[in-house]
Write a structure and sequence with these properties.
- 22% of the residues lie in helices and 38% in strands.
- By secondary structure, it is α+β, with helices and mostly antiparallel strands.
- The strands form 4 sheets. Strands 2-11-14-13-12-15 form a 6-stranded antiparallel β-barrel. It has a 4-stranded antiparallel β-sheet with strand order 20-1-22-21, with no helix packed on it. It has a 4-stranded antiparallel β-sheet with strand order 3-10-8-5, with no helix packed on it.
- It has 4 domains: 106 residues, conserved putative lor/sdh protein from methanococcus maripaludis s2 fold (Beta Barrel), CATH 2.40.420; 103 residues, Efflux pump adaptor protein, beta barrel domain (Elongation Factor Tu (Ef-tu), domain 3); 54 residues, RNA polymerase II/Efflux pump adaptor protein, barrel-sandwich hybrid domain (OB fold (Dihydrolipoamide Acetyltransferase, E2P), Beta Barrel); 76 residues, Helix Hairpins (Orthogonal Bundle).
Length: 372
């Protein structure tokens, strides 16, 4: 048999979940104009900055259209200027009765029509300038490029699907995960919905000892009734690029810390139909103590009542014990004089019922530990 000292101290309340990494922002780069691709300025997998040139479409047809519209607009503006001059002269002649009212109205109507034509020409010219600018395709965000779908010489279609490439922002990244409705209610009770909670991330593949932390940034506004879960997202700086979009990770959402929590190894607790209990070593005997089991915490379990901390709890061989059985301790005494504690709070114990009988043991107990 083995024993361990019951611990008392702070115990974080952590909700565990499975998560997946997704980019903080992702953009499918598309062309806004159609034309021949004349230049690819980047390679697949490059790191690009916002505003960096990615592709060049042949600008010559767009430049020719811009020149044509500029000439047309200049002609219409000259015609409008002449029509407005005629309107002013006709207004003076109409006062002296040299032109009819109908002629005057006609000159004003012609000037108004020409003004509308000039305005439309200016709009067309601005669109042509924009199209010419769009022949140079730039990165809308900073990030890492994916696969390039077209090569130099290919015909690019405006807003075609799929786009030319996809850019993913990898610094920071988001961790997408869900928690059950019960855990969500516990989160609301302990931390509310507006607190920036800490999130611990462990990759499922790779270095599982590396500590990666993020901050909870998103809580969905509804429970998914199909799964009974709530979607959450956390932002991770990802300065070393250790996390990659699509990667699966284990997530621990730390809600609060329970101060002065009593914890024992889970194998120390024996569960029966009448409740749960543990065996502690007291005055050389095994003493059975009823406990109220709280939440699990990894390999430990929190006790809501029954122990106060510092006891030596038996974590192995409880199936050979009964309440009051003598326990023969072996090994060094723990600090503070508690027998049965060895290295790391563990010690060896040998025990049995008086007279060598264990017929009084609770046969309905769930066996925890293995007899040595």
């Amino acid at each position: 048999m083995s024993t361990m000292t019951v611990k008392k101290g702070p115990l974080p309340f952590i909700v565990s979940a499975n998560g997946q990494i997704e980019p903080n922002r992702t953009v499918a780069v598309q062309s806004l104009v159609s034309g021949m691709l004349t230049r690819v300025a980047i390679a697949e997998g490059d790191e690009v900055s916002q505003g960096q040139v990615l592709f060049q479409i042949d600008p010559r047809p767009f430049r020719a259209e811009l020149d044509r519209l500029q000439s047309t607009l200049a002609r219409d503006q000259a015609t409008l200027l002449r029509a407005r001059g005629d309107s002013v002269r006709f207004a003076g002649l109409a006062k002296d009765g040299y032109v009819t009212r109908q002629q005057l109205d006609q000159t004003f109507a012609e000037a108004s029509a020409l003004a509308a034509t000039v305005a439309a020409g200016q709009a067309s010219l601005e669109r042509a300038r924009l199209d010419l600018e769009n022949t140079t395709i730039k990165a809308p965000i900073s990030g890492r490029t994916g696969q390039i779908t077209l090569r130099v010489g290919s015909l690019v279609r405006a807003q075609a699907d799929p786009g030319l490439l996809i850019i993913n922002e990898l610094q920071p990244v988001l961790v997408r995960f869900t928690v059950p409705e019960q855990a969500f209610e516990e989160m609301r009770r302990r931390s509310g919905l507006d607190k920036a909670l800490s999130v611990n991330i462990v990759p499922n593949v790779g270095d599982s000892t590396k500590k990666i932390t993020g901050t909870l940034t998103f809580i969905d506004n509804a429970v998914d009734r199909a799964t009974g879960t709530v979607l959450l997202k956390a932002r991770v700086p990802n300065a070393d690029r250790s996390l990659w979009p699509g990667q699966f990770v284990s997530v621990g959402l730390e809600l609060t810390v329970d101060q002065d929590a009593i914890t024992v190894p889970s194998e120390a607790v024996v569960t029966t139909t009448n409740g749960a209990f543990v065996y502690v070593v007291e005055d050389g005997k095994a003493k059975r103590i009823a406990v109220k089991v709280g939440r699990p915490a990894g390999t430990l379990v929190k006790l809501d009542s029954g122990l106060v901390g510092g006891e030596q709890v038996i974590i192995e061989g409880q199936n050979r014990l009964q309440d009051g059985a003598k326990v023969e301790l072996r090994g060094a005494l723990s600090k503070g004089g508690s027998p049965g504690a060895g290295r790391g709070g563990r010690g060896g114990a040998k025990g049995g019922a008086k007279g060598g009988s264990n017929s009084g043991a609770d046969t309905s107990a769930t066996k925890r530990g293995a007899a040595q």
